[in-house]
Amino acid sequence: NFAAEKDYRKGLIESGAVTQVLAALKRFGSDVSTPAVEAACGLFWSLGREDKATLFKEGALSYVGHVMLAAPDQPEKVSEQAAGALSSLTMKVEVREVVRELGVLPVIISMLSKKQWKRGDTIVNAILVLRNCTASAEGTRSAEVVVNCGGHVTICEILKERIHLISIDTNRRAEHEDIAKEACLCLKNCIVAQPLIVNDLLKRGIRTELQTLVQIAVSDAKKAASVALSAIEKAVSYTHLRAHETPEHLVCRLLLEKKKSYTPQVSLSSIYTTIKYHKSV
User: Fold this and answer.
1) How far apart are the C-alpha atoms of 256 and 253, rounded to whole Å?
2) Are 40 and 63 in contact (CB under 8 A)?
3) Residue 157, SS3?
4) How far is Cα 80 from Cα 122, in angstroms, rounded to an integer?
5) What is the pTM of this model?
6) Which residues neighbour 90 within 8 Å (Cβ) at sequence distance 6 or greater?
7) CB count, 10 Å around CB of 130?
8) Which residue did the predictor score with more confidence, 182 or 257?
9) For 168-197, how does the pLDDT look when each residue is reduced to its tens digit (9 = 90+)?
């Protein structure tokens, strides 16, 4: 409760609250009650808004990550707090790689695809974790994990469902738009990192759905939908160019990519081999 107030967070961290709570949880092991796990994750969620580095250093991330791995076997209220803590901690770039290595992303995608979470806060926190982990150049590997698990399809279906609910469930419109916003931005990250998925998304009517959201949304979801649409158009152009790429164009692109990444130049023999292969095909 104290951590919920911004003025108390710094004092709690400096007094060693994170270390003491983790020590208590470890001491009781499997005997820790569900309310205690929920409260601990809620504490780390609040304190993460103040000092992500300390929580990362003290081991709170590892604890919350393992709580999320157990999501299929625990009450949703625990997952809600754990997802909230991860959504806060993954704002830090270094944390995202750890979350990916822990194997949390496939669990989140599985829970979302099976619709095992019903609460809006749980869903939006979970999608926010995926969004954070797939953001920027550092999120390429996480985006690959998400796509390989079918996460882009799951997020697409959630987005379509929420766009439909925005119009018919006006009492929870803010919740639906919040989830739609995070879904749009998560899809945008995946498309940027894995542009070839755009064809699959287009077959599922994503462009029309996003255009609808732009028209009906009254919050930041409108802007998020526009950003996702822009990413789709760029991906469509990319896939179109790749589909009509000549061997000579391929060589030029490879050389440019090598130059941008500052890696050793491609050998002439490999270039000739590439041209020969494509001409044979």
Assistant:
1) 5
2) yes
3) helix
4) 4
5) 0.83
6) 96, 99, 128, 129, 132, 133
7) 34
8) 182
9) 999 999 999 999 999 999 999 999 999 999
